[in-house]
Amino acid sequence: MFWTIYLGILAVSSIGFLVKGSYKTTPAKIDFVVSIITWIGLFGYVTDNQILNPFIWKFIFVGALLWDVIFSFNSKYYNGDKTLDDMPQPFRNIFIVIILIVTIGPLYYGLFHYAFK
């Protein structure tokens, strides 16, 4: 039940950002594509359906995780957002890590199990 709700939240937020027009920059568009691919992997994990070869999901897991971490620490490329610029660097990094763990931690937990099971 938790996984289904989480899938819905991820889908609604991605579609909401798309409809709102938030994916304007090239990195933001790449992030959207990465989000869709990882969502498909999590959907496969939740429904216990093999969508692609697990070998492919291993590469997707590593690449997407690296992308999300790098993209999150360079959030200024996301529509020029400078919300965290006023925060001191150590606190900003801690804040980003906490937000990453809370928001996409379950996604990568499921994707890891889907790729490496």
From TrEMBL:
Domain of life assignment: Bacteria
Keyword line: Membrane, Transmembrane, Transmembrane helix
Chain ranges passing through the membrane: 6-23, 30-46, 52-73, 94-116
Protein name as annotated: Uncharacterized protein
Organism the protein comes from: Domibacillus mangrovi
